[in-house]
Amino acid sequence: MKIATYNVNGINARLPVLLQWLEQAKPAVVCLQELKAPQEKFPLEAIREAGYEAIWHGQKSWNGVAILTPHIPAEETRRGLAGDPDDSQSRYIEARVNGILIRCLYLPNGNPAPGPKFDYKLRWFERLKTHAAQLIKQNIPAVLAGDFNVIPTELDVYKPERWLEDALFRPETRQAYQQLLAQGWTDSLRKFHPQQPIYTFWDYFRNAYGRNAGLRIDHLLVSPALAGRLSEAAVDHQVRGWEKSSDHAPTWIRLADG
User: Fold this and answer.
1) What is the full DSSP assignment across the chain?
2) One GO molecular function term (predicted)?
3) Were both Cys, which of 37, 52, 72, 222 would link to 68 (CB 3.0–4.6 Å)?
4) Sequence-ordered list of residues with C-beta below 8 angstroms from that of 134, at least 6 positions apart, any chain
5) pLDDT tens across 189-230, in order?
6) What pTM does this model have?
């Protein structure tokens, strides 16, 4: 079972790239972030023509998350992260697929830091950790997939000294990510590539992709109930080089049959 996450950076603007990648990669589950489209502007017909169904939580101009599955829509279990009833940002959607709880998230960027946006990022992270801990306690097979906007370690960024004050790399952000892992979650990419610089995002400026000056901020974390089934994890980095592509590349794992 192939499960992928992909920040599309505008689903309608990047639709040809997304459809081309779906045709080539054929994932069983796709978590999308940064749809940048209101609910009614999601391109469902084009997604269906590609052989997928979707559930999505849209938002005009910003944010937005979706889960795609072949042929049959996923069984939605939650829309929006619990813990703040006044939070109107579309950053979280959750569904059950083949007995696995898929949690698609787009964690806040948090810049400039310090400041209100960084405070919101850390509060959102606390809400995520609270919900994630419940899944661990209940031993639920689950995947946390998405754009976490977290650079976990110096190995995950080109020239880390340039990112020390950025919200993605500040100590508070990295500590929150490590606390999440300490609950029992497995960082899939690092399990298979423990010492290799491996990136999922390259800025559009300064030929970042050509120089491989990237960041690893898109993550797939698996719960202990699934860790033994992990058989592969990789980044389809070549997609970042396609014309009119997102500044992220699809990142994916493969689970052996349970």
Assistant:
1) -EEEEEE-SSTTTTHHHHHHHHHHH--SEEEEE---S-GGG--HHHHHHTTEEEEEE--SSS--EEEEEESS--EEEEES-TT-TT-----EEEEEETTEEEEEEE-----SSSSHHHHHHHHHHHHHHHHHHHHHHTT--EEEEEE-----SGGGBSSGGGGTTSTTTSHHHHHHHHHHHHTT-EEHHHHH-TTS---SB--SSTTHHHHT--B--EEEEE-HHHHTTEEEEEE-GGGGGSTT--SB--EEEEE---
2) double-stranded DNA 3'-5' DNA exonuclease activity
3) 52
4) none
5) 999 999 999 999 999 999 999 999 999 999 999 999 999 999
6) 0.98
* Nearest partner of 55 among 77, 24, 27, judged by Cα: 77
* The architecture CATH gives domain 2-255: 4-Layer Sandwich (3.60)
Catalytic status, residue 156:
no
pLDDT score for 11: 98
Pairwise CA distance, residues 21 & 18, whole Å: 5
Is 147 tagged catalytic? yes
Residues 6 or more apart whose Cβ sits within 8 Å of residue 137: none
Identify the CA nearest to 69 among candidates 29, 108, 119: 29
Residue-wise DSSP of 118-140: HHHHHHHHHHHHHHHHHHHHTT-
Q: Is 71 exposed, middle or buried (0-12, 13-18, 19+ CB in 10 A)?
A: exposed
Average pLDDT over residues 17-43: 98
| Given 52, 92, 106, 209, the catalytic residue | 106
3-7, 69-73, 117-121: segment of lowest average pLDDT: 69-73
